[in-house]
Amino acid sequence: MKYFLLTKNTNFQSLIVLLFLSFLFISCNSHEPTEPPLEIRFEPPAHFPEVAYDLNTNPITTEGFLLGKALFFEGDLSRDGTISCGSCHIPTSAFTHHGHDVSHGIDDRLGRRNATPIMNLAWHRSFFWDGGVHHLDLTSLVPIEDEREMDEDFARVLEKLAQNNDYPRRFERAFGSPEINTVSVLKALSQFMIIAVSANSPYDKYARGEALLSDLELQGLKIYEEKCASCHSGTLFTDLSFRNNGLFPKPRPDKGRYEITLNPDDEFKFKVPSLRNLRFTAPYMHDGRFRTLDEVYDHYESQVQDMPTLDPLLRSENNKLGIRLSSKERTALTAFLETLNDADFVTNPLFQE
Amino acid sequence: MNYISKNIFFVLAILASFLLFSCNNDDDTDSLTPDIEEGEVGRMRFEFDNIAGNRNLQLNTGTYQTASGEEFNVTTFDYYLSNFVFIDKDGNEYAVPQDESYKLVRESDRESQFFGFDNVPAGDYTAVRFVVGVDSLRNTKDISERTGALDPANGMYWSWNSGYIFVKLEGNSPAAPENQNGEHIFRYHIGGFGGFDSPTINNVKTVEIPLTETAVVRKNNAPLLHFTVDVLKLFEAPNPFLISENPTVMFAPFSVKIAENYVRMFAFDHLH
Q: Which of B76, B143, B145, B254 is the mutation pick for testing A, counting most A CBs within 10 A?
């Protein structure tokens, strides 16, 4: 297996080719509108685990990806044309609504949870903070139909796209038929999201033996391994499980995973978020309550609430709660977490509107 | 073996052979059920006729009363039926191919209340079994295997908690609390297929309904089974409840009680 999109070369070379092709696209565009000479392929990074998404059900093509991208930034997915997926999942913020604790959707209605990043989702088997959706193809229905986000009937989305001058042609190119239906819309959006792979951070280069980390970053890596990696594990930096990390419940408590399973053991559990791209994705936690990593450290150090469903890993032998982090450890840990920021991912022209 | 038991055995054996003989006789003389050719198939047709007690259900304009005396009207009444099985007089079962078995019946769409299945083996059917809702496995299949009646764009799908709404009943009732727009709306969206990887509510229900008239399926005989679906039963046994106390029930433990009620909505009425 090779890395990233395009070519059978290394990640870095891919990126160069990609950038070069994108420039071609831009320069072509300025003269005459022609199709971009892109070739999109999904090639899982070698140091990543096995892909969860069954690509046989949705073979990635350049046309499918470009259609998915157009849909991702399409305002007509919302009731009044004002909100697209990209409104709250901004590519330069690793597809989050950077700076917003919760997003404001249609009519400035406020959502309930922090917009999750769209990255490396082909490796996930459940989606959103509560894992209520079990397949990537089904994720796009949620914001479209949520009355606080895009507030539109999916059937009306299909009608609007069919009436658009452009889309039937695009669907024909992508799927061989101008018919616009639930399956083709959702599969196209999945293609765009599947290609959104973040695997070229300084840490990734270190993991592939292409670069070194500084002493401080290596100290941070050790602290991460000791104190964080049991939940934020592996190359995805999440074990994809649902856990209660002891956040103080708000006056109208969000019970997270419980709302999906109705199992009291799942109260206040949320999906463990990845530690990748934290520089671009603040604020943190399911409700965006912490603006900085220091606030997150403070929480784990001294604010963890004792609850029946609190994760056992946050309970030490003498029943002390939380994770101790000295200021020296914090500095090193932050230096390490910085190495998980993938500038190539957030600036990749392939994903920009 | 002593004398008495020998005798009883003898009498029983004679009785049994008479029974067998008389059964055979019946079959031979039954003119209602024409002979079946090898490999003969036919069509079985259905009508699902929504009613409220002894009245036909009329969306919006009809006013009805629950057994507890609460008045209401109905603005939406939609439900999924699937996994049809036909049982003949000898207990043989024929299952409709699953892909073809998913039906979304809507009170607002008369056509949806009539459907049929072809290629049903010729036979004399005395019972029908079906799932009210969508089986768990189909809930988890790739979206490309969930088209037509199962399209999530049909408005019978929970996007936030992936899964079909099996039965949707909405309407107005003075018993329902007033909302911010001054309306008194009740909403029952009942679903829950048991969870994808963590167990949760499972409201997938199977009902088996004996047919009081035999449905004779032949190449040239396509019986139409007329079922009634009584919306009042949703509020009644085995878990009678008040709209005033439960005006909105969706993905919540109480939905299990409503599902136990609504399987009793379905009754065989007559054969065309």
A: B143
Is B162 in contact with A186 (Cβ distance < 8 A)?
A: no
Q: Which pLDDT tens digits describe chain B residue by residue (272 residues)?
A: 455 555 555 555 555 555 444 444 444 444 556 789 999 999 999 999 999 999 999 999 999 999 999 999 999 999 999 999 999 999 999 999 999 999 999 999 999 999 999 999 999 999 999 999 999 999 999 999 999 999 999 999 999 999 999 999 999 999 999 999 999 999 999 999 999 989 999 999 999 999 999 999 999 999 999 999 999 999 999 999 999 999 999 999 999 999 999 999 999 999 99
**Beta-carbon separation of B162 and A146 below 8 A:** no
Q: How far is B146 from chain A (nearest CA, A)?
A: 9
d(CA A336, CA A313): 22
- Across the interface, whether the CB atoms of A181 and B162 are under 8 A apart is answered no
Q: Which residue in the set A57, A125, A263 is minimally distant from B200, CB to CB?
A: A263
- Structure-derived torsion over alpha carbons of residues A221, A227, A232, A235, reported in degrees to the nearest 10: 30
Residues of chain B contacting A146 with CB distance shorter than 8 Å: 159-160
Does the distance separating the beta carbons of B153 and A153 come in below 8 Å?
yes
Instruction: Report phi then psi at B81, rounded to 5.
Output: -125, 145
A chain contacts of residue B157, beta-carbon cutoff 8 Å: 141
Q: A149 and A143 in contact (C-beta within 8 Å)?
A: yes
Residues of chain A neighbouring B144 (CB-CB closer than 8 A): 57, 183, 187
Using CA atoms, how far apart are residues A79 and A189, in angstroms rounded to an integer? 18
Q: Which of A131, A135, A133, A141 is nearest to A273 (CA)?
A: A131
**B180 at A interface, C-beta within 8 A:** no
* Residue B222 and residue B43 in contact, taking contact as beta carbons nearer than 8 Å: yes
Task: List b or e across B206-220, with b for residues whose CB sees 16 or more CB atoms inside 10 angstroms.
Answer: ebeeebeebbbbbee
DSSP per residue, A154-196: HHHHHHHHHHSSSHHHHHHHHHS-----HHHHHHHHHHHHHH-
Question: For B143, which of A138, A144, A261 is closest by C-beta distance?
Answer: A138
Name the one residue in this structure whose structure tokens are 């003949």: B88
pTM, two decimal places: 0.86
Q: What is the residue extent of each domain of chain B? A: 43-271
Task: Using DSSP, state whether B70 is helix, strand or coil.
Answer: coil
Contact A137 B253 (CB under 8 A): no
Burial of A109: CB neighbours in 10 Å, binned 0-12, 13-18, 19+: middle
